[in-house]
Amino acid sequence: MGVFSTAGGTEPTGHEQVVFCSDQQSGLRAIIAIYSTALGPALGGTRFYPYANEEDAIHDVLELSRGMAYKNAMAGLDLGGGKAVIWGDPDRDKSEPLLRAYGRFVESLGGRYYTACDVGTYVQDMDMVARETRFVTGRSEAHGGAGDSSVLTAYGVFQGMRAAAEHRWGSPSLAGRRVGIAGLGKVGKHLTRHLLSDGAQVVATDVSQRAFEWARETYPQVDLVDDVTALITSDIDVYAPCALGGALNDDTVPVLRATVVAGAANNQLAHPGVEKLLDERGVLYAPDYVINSGGVIQVADEIEGFNFERAKLRAGKIYDTTRQILLLAQEEGVPPAVAADRMADRRMAEVGRLRTIRLRHER
User: Fold this and answer.
1) Burial class, 327, CB count within 10 angstroms (exposed 0-12 / middle 13-18 / buried 19+)
2) Which residues bind NAD(+) (predicted)?
3) Which of 132, 188, 322, 344 has the fewest CB atoms within 10 Å of its CB?
4) Domains of the chain
C-alpha cells in the first residue's frame, strides 16, 4: 500500500493527509495519518513499534487511521479518524527528547489531529507529549486526564461480545461459554476479569512469559495454551483476538472452532474477503472497530473534561450498536463487517455534509 493508492495502485486510500516526522538528534521517525475530518478533528492513538521496514510502518498507519475514522463514526463521536506510528523499539528508543519532538509535530498540525495511547505507549508518555502540544488525550489522572483507556476498551469489548452472544444463542450472558483470548495485555487482562465475573470459562495465550505468570498468579482458573494455533483449534465458543491485527486470515479462519469472534485487536481481518470466509463458515463476527471503541470513547470524553461514569455510560451503548449492526447484516444478507461499514459511511456522509452550511465565525 502506498500513501496515495492501495496495493497495485488501483484504488485511492482516501486519506486527507499523511505527515512524515523526523528528528535526527532524538531518533524520532514517526508518521501521522489523517484519514478523515468529516465529523471533526481526527483522533487516534500513537503506536510505538519496531517495524521491519518503512513500508510496513506506512501500511500500518494507513490501515489504522482508516479504522479510527470508522470507529469514531460508529461510536457516535464528533471526531474524525487518524493514527500515528513511531518506528522503533519502545524499550530501547523511547526518551523524553523523542516524545517531546513528536509532540511538537502533533502541535504543528494545529488541532487537525489529537493523539492518545496505543501499543507501546502509555499514559506517562502522553503526559510527556503534552508538554509540547495541546492536542493530546489519554493523559494520567494526575494531569487531569482519563488515565488508562484499556479499562473502557475491555468493557466495550465485553458489551459487544454480550450482544453477539445474544444474537447467536439468545442470551446476552457468557455464562458457561468457553472464551479464547489471544493476548493478555492491557485490554486482555481487564476482559478476562469481566468474563470470569459473568461465569465464562477462559482459555488464553500470549507471546509474553510475564503475561503467563500474571494469569497463573491472578486467575489460576484460566487455562493457558502455548500459542494462537492451539487456542483457535481448541474447543471454544468465542474467539477474542486482543493483540495485533491480521488475526483472521486464510490460514486461521478454516481451522477456527469458535462460532463467534469478538475481540479488542484492531484490523482483525487480514484482507478484504475474510469477512466472507467467516460468513460462509457460519462464524458471527462482531466488527472490531465497533466493539473496541470504548477506549476512544474514554479519551474523547477527556477533551470536554473527563467524567468516568459518563464515559462508561457511553461505552455501554456499544452493546446496542453491535445488536443493530448484527440485525442489519441479517436483514440485508451481508456480513456484519459490511453492514458496519455501510452505517459508518452513511454517518460520515450525512453529518459531514453539514459542514457545507457555513457559520459566521467560519467565514
Assistant:
1) middle
2) 183-188
3) 132
4) 13-67+80-143 (3.40.50.10860), 150-293+319-347 (3.40.50.720)
